[in-house]
Predict the structure.
Amino acid sequence: MPDSHTSTDHTPYDALLLLSFGGPEGPEDVVPFLENVTRGRGIPKERLAEVGRHYFLFDGVSPINEQNRELLAALRKDFAEHGLDLPVYWGNRNWAPYLTDTLREIAADGHRRVLTLATSAYAGYSGCRQYRENLADALRTLDAEGLPALRVDKLRHFYNHPGFVGPMTDATLAALTGIPAAVRDGARLVFTTHSVPVAMADTSGAPDDPARGHDGGAYVAQHLAVARLVADAVADATGVADRPWELVYQSRSGAPHTPWLEPDVCDRLEELHASGTPAAVLVPIGFVSDHMEVRYDLDTEAVAKAAGLGLPLTRAATVGTDPRFTAAVRDLVLERAATERGAVVDRCALGALGPSHDVCAVACCPNPRAPRPAAAEQ
């Protein structure tokens, strides 16, 4: 039986696109970058400069672009070492290299069937559909310019792939070693992800996905599934079966009157300390790399909060360029290619939710403002 784990046949696809958020690479980039992110919302430049103040703490440079360069190199290396002759390109939604420019390059190089890896592991509007809306916008631009038509598909959500869960588990175990031995067994695992509006979370996922009926929709259900997998694996490895864990949120950026997912990580650290929790480990399962939401919201704000409380705190690393993660991307590419060719493949997924869908339904993760065309849907 054809199997994505042994084949190197990537047909019908002839390119892979690494698609990410993008970020400023100098002080002069911060406000223009934020204008891109908030386009259409009428936010004054002075307000954007205030919103972007945390970027200036890092000389106006977001870590995300350099991390994407590293992931791009790691994917190319993994593919070459395993005989997968598939070119990998990189484009961003909000900063150079811009998505539309990258698709122009792909078309100019003669490629026509493109798979997309978005740097978000979960269902949700901002983590999936908005990327697909941006793809649709870019494809319309190419069509208006008379460039050859591209067909663009998107890899399934990889939150419960062993190549994502395994590195997060090992990173959590490594972070635990940084907790003082006297309180290590009592350290609470605090899994973190980006907060989103409650209404957006509730409608996340496919309409026929049982996880969408979860309180918080597929977005919350998928994060809880990963947290449970990691917590169980940590319990097995440490022998501490009753270690407490929970999911909290960070990086809220919306209007105060709009309900967003809670609790906030810093607020929760205060509550945990007050209730007698002896130590905590932050586990950023919502993020693929240590970009600004990790470096500032966790490594700066949350660490300062814990220090002020006297609460021992460490932070687990994200998957980054872990070889197991790059191998997982290769596996997902070959899995999808085999499926497109009509083969039956073994789809890797841990936990009760199983592998995610390949093609998003039109009603998946709806745009909270108004319906917009999106690529890679049925």
Q: What stands out?
A: The chain has a mean pLDDT of 95. Residues 173 and 237 are 8 Å apart (CA to CA).
